[in-house]
Amino acid sequence: MKKLLAVLAGSATALLTACGGGGGTTQQLAGDSGSTSPLAAYVGTWQSACDHHDRQLLVIAFKTDGSGSLELTPTGETYFKSDCSGPVVATDGMSAQITGKPDGTADMQIKLAENAAATTLRVDKITSSVPAYRFQRTGASVKYVLLDGKNNWCVDVDNGDSCMEDKGMHPALSVPGGLSLRGNDLYTVMLDKGAYVLDMHYVKK
Fold this sequence. Notes:
By secondary structure, the chain is an all-beta fold. It contains 1 helix and 13 strands, in the order αβββββββββββββ.
């Protein structure tokens, strides 16, 4: 199962290790603020590759307060079939909105695949923050059950079931991360033990 919350992945409490779905619409700042920002290229809906029933979505928009910061809405989709075809049977999301505050740019050496050599990415650094939040799962066939003494949301898939533990409320977070664009490929990076590393790869939907 994949991490849903890419921009906050530096914190273990901010990992959504489950499958889910959803989407959203994008918005920009009033006037020319959005179009003149170096972050304007990131606005839109992005999706990851299918990973055994799971596909991650990330919707990026400008906040409407004129600050130039981003709103980031990560969701997850769980499909009945392992190749992510057919209907979505569950949607995972967060109860609070993530804000991404610009923090300059930097050229970074990042491995884009596990066994690949590092390549140079121009990264737009952001500080991502979110108030206290919880993860949630919805869907017509989602069941809330007790597994090994812990509350879980579960949904049937073609080879068994997909479950996500309900860990209740998580504390507010503010962590460094970054975004990098190559054509229609979006890479999110996170700070791990003092160095930025690849977190997720998306393509424009």
